[in-house]
Write a structure and sequence with these properties.
By secondary structure, this protein is of the alpha+beta class. It has two domains: about 60 residues; about 140 residues, no CATH class. It contains six helices and seven strands; from the N terminus they run βββββββαααααα. It has a seven-stranded antiparallel beta sheet, with no helix packed on it. α1 runs antiparallel to α6. It is elongated. It starts with a strand and ends in a 10-residue tail after the last helix.
């Protein structure tokens, strides 16, 4: 991943990547070569003649880098918070089901569940939560497949890409459904309701991560 690209006064570029700084010498309009290795780099401009992306053979046969969206630097901790909280919520749900079954006192407590679990808000909150879980599992399996054999990226059927993109697209309304359910469910203990808000916030963090990573692009090859 490129961290920063700087234009120098002599027409060259310096690029910070993986903690290393490389210098790229001009070889014509929007064409450069790396000073020591001779690896080529091309600059692609949009219709307004602004730099839209750069392409280089430094990674793989060719790698294309686009301008990073705002707040990209805080993406890793936000994504980690979202994933960790959602997975913890899954563990809590499973533990709560076991307590409901084997501990009668817990099953009747206000902390255990909503007084009206069948309400419209709670139904949509549960659907939103499980949508997020399914999206996480699907993308995790996709990442695992890439780790095993990167060629999967180039032979993946369009139906799989469509499924992954659809799940990514649904993360935003899923997070909103959870927030709505947490706001409407006023019968639970404040700790339980606060936990629902935290899970909803984690879902929102994951939805934002999906947007920043452009995972809702159905035509992308990622």
């Amino acid at each position: 991943m490129l961290r920063d690209v700087f234009a120098q006064g002599d027409g060259s570029l310096t690029i910070l990547s993986a903690g290393q700084v490389t210098r790229w010498l001009p070889q014509g309009k929007d064409r450069f070569v790396e000073k020591s290795s001779g690896i080529p780099l091309a600059v692609v401009r949009d219709r307004q003649d602004r730099v839209a992306r750069i392409a280089s053979a430094a990674l793989y046969p060719v790698a294309v880098f686009e301008r990073a969206p705002p707040l990209t630097d805080v993406l890793p901790p936000i994504a980690a918070f979202g994933f960790a909280t959602i997975l913890l919520a899954l563990f809590v749900r499973l533990a709560s089901r076991l307590l409901h079954r084997f501990v009668p006192a817990y099953a009747g407590s206000r902390f255990a569940a909503s007084a009206n679990p069948a309400s419209l808000a709670n139904r949509w909150a549960r659907r939103g939560y499980w949508t997020i879980i399914v999206a996480i599992v699907a993308w995790a399996l996709f990442g695992l497949a890439l780790a095993i054999d990167f060629k999967v990226l180039f032979v993946m059927p369009f139906a799989v890409r469509l499924l992954l993109g659809t799940l990514a697209l649904l993360t935003a309304p899923a997070a909103l459904a959870q927030m709505w359910g947490a706001w409407r469910d006023t019968d639970r203990h404040w700790l339980s309701r606060g936990w629902s808000w935290l899970v909803a916030l984690a879902s929102g963090a994951l939805a934002w991560t999906v947007y920043v990573l452009d995972l809702i692009n159905f035509s992308a090859n990622w």
